Amino acid sequence: MSLSIDDVNRIARLARIRVVEGEAAQYQGRLNDVFTLIAEMQAIDTTDVAPMAHARDVFQRLREDVVTEPDRREAFQSVAPQTEAGLYLVPKVIE
Amino acid sequence: MSQQTIKQLADLLASGRTSSVELCQDYLGRIAAHNPAVNAFITVDAERTLAEARAADALRAAGNAGPLAGVPIAHKDIFCAEGWLTTCGSRMLHNFVSPYDAHVITKFKTAGMPTLGKTNMDEFAMGSSNETSFYGPVKNPWDATRVPGGSSGGSAACVAAGLAPAATGTDTGGSIRQPAALCGITGLKPTYGVVSRYGMIAFASSLDQGGPMARTAEDCALLLNLMAGFDCRDSTSLERENEDYSRDLARPLDGLRIGLPREFFGEGLTGDTARAVEAAIEQFRKLGATTVEVSLPNSGLSVAAYYVIAPAEASSNLSRFDGVRYGYRTPDYGDLTDMYEKTRAEGFGAEVKRRIMIGTYVLSHGYYDAYYIQAQKLRRLIAQDFAEAYKACDVILGPTAPTTAFKLGEKADDPVQMYLSDIYTIAVNLAGLPGMSLPCGFDGQGLPIGLQLIGDYFSEARMLNVAHQYQLATDWHTRTPGGF
What we know:
The complex is a heterodimer.
Chain A: H1 5-14, H2 23-39, H3 73-77, E1 83-84, E2 87-88
Antiparallel strand pairs in A: 1-2
Chain B: H1 6-15, H2 20-38, E1 41-43, H3 46-61, E2 73-76, H4 103-110, E3 115-119, H5 153-160, E4 166-171, H6 177-183, E5 186-189, E6 209-214, H7 217-227, E7 257-261, H8 271-286, E8 290-294, H9 302-317, H10 336-347, H11 350-362, H12 368-389, E9 395-399, H13 415-419, H14 426-431, E10 435-442, E11 448-455, H15 460-473
Parallel strand pairs in B: 2-3, 7-8, 7-9
Antiparallel strand pairs in B: 1-3, 4-6, 5-6, 5-10, 9-11, 10-11
């Protein structure tokens, strides 16, 4: 299979990465090289093989429903690009 | 001082012949002198290091010190360390001063080991040469025109150049073992789940594992003793009894069965690397080991499976970098989507963007089964190959990397060639097994060659024993590059 320029632009939109005119063709070439590498695995018959999500068969632990973390909002917001009154600021999303 | 092991430095400190402040000053001086050329560190903060050293000396004076208190260590810039700039090699985090400590950092702090600095790395650990770092490539101390390997290239180079006695690294597809091989040091990737990933910036969460990089296997054992252990803040951390990973170091190798995968000794292994690995096998026979041929028939598919699974997980993990809560935000934007897209286009480098796009595609509607599920199935086949092999052997041995250090720029424009640098290491991550690299010789140009040991789950102590016995009988690991 081979990605078209439209495919590249669609993937970039899904990934929220701006791709400008001219860049898409570069991505197309490189991504298709990688997909050629990946393609060899398509030939393998894995009909009765169960997918392996994790190296060890671990399960999600449950813990007591109690507060374990202190409030460190100020410390965590001190590294944010823009905050106000304890809130993260972004461009207006509701007109 | 610069070529001393962790063990030797700990003994010196215990004897009172030096202090942590003196040690740290010595290393900081070496970093100041050599780092401009090597570029192994992204951040050095002498005042912070010396404050930690003074605290360690006070701890020793009070008689409350653990065995490694006062011995300094460098940390890969993927580990969040409170008060330290933590960039992960990316413009996206160029201004991120971490408000908290990774579990691994907490462990070293508790042990009283001062941080010498944060080491350079491929951006978000995506690379095998350190050339994708926003902070510029690291130079291999053995030849400044060559790469140190990656992604933990700064950690490997700083230990090789004697700018730190040891460093932490992380390994998703070979990122501890391959740079250890290319820089002539010893590095260990533990069994998946042994070292907590809390505070370790995530690349591919089902593969990422932190581990030690040092001069010797013995040092790796001492460091792993600190790093390993259950942590409830990592959902895949394993609840196990704590181990002493140095307990078997002195054990003789009589009766050890070494498995040699025929797939690792075929075409693609260059003459010098093949010869050095063969000589190491001969050395192990002299030490009492026997060898048996084993087969990992699906290992050839590991690179393909990896380049589906790792980008898929990365595309999910790196969605958090959106210019809202931390890190870079584009200066010029309109609506929210515009802000996201420009922030990510400008904050991420080319390789990271490629991998996010590969991951986005293989997880997208209509392709999930053909790519992601197929790769997860191959992963099981690869893991089953290892399980079969361990019926006939105790440890698997082979080369760490197909070649010695390559030239800066040689593979930078060809992602696929770069990906093949990890052809011998990737299967180990997919299976979740422990693996390590140790020096076993030099090529005709004087570049170090790495030997890889792959163990069964939780056999780190045995692997370290095997490596330590080899290092008692050989001196490859004591060689150091000129000019440092």
